[in-house]
Amino acid sequence: MEDGGAPNDGLDDDWKDRLVAIGKGVASFVPLAGGPLAEIIGSVIPGQRADRITIISEN
The whole model's pTM is what? Predict the structure, then answer.
């Protein structure tokens, strides 16, 4: 157990989640194409928190 006794369920933000957030933020600065580019970045990188929540809920 970590963080004051809370169990590690694998749903906390990890390095991949933070990297995606930074990449999406940087991509959003691209004129005209920034929004769609940020969405593409967010959708093509596997194993993000939403994916992990889906796996946990299926079990």
Answer: 0.56
| Cα dihedral 27/43/21/50 (nearest 10) | 170
> Range of 52's domain?
15-58
Q: How many domains does the chain have?
A: 1
**pLDDT tens string for the chain (59 positions)?**
455 656 666 667 777 778 888 888 998 898 988 888 888 877 777 666 666 666 667 66
- Identify the DSSP state of 29: T
In a domain, 2, yes or no: no
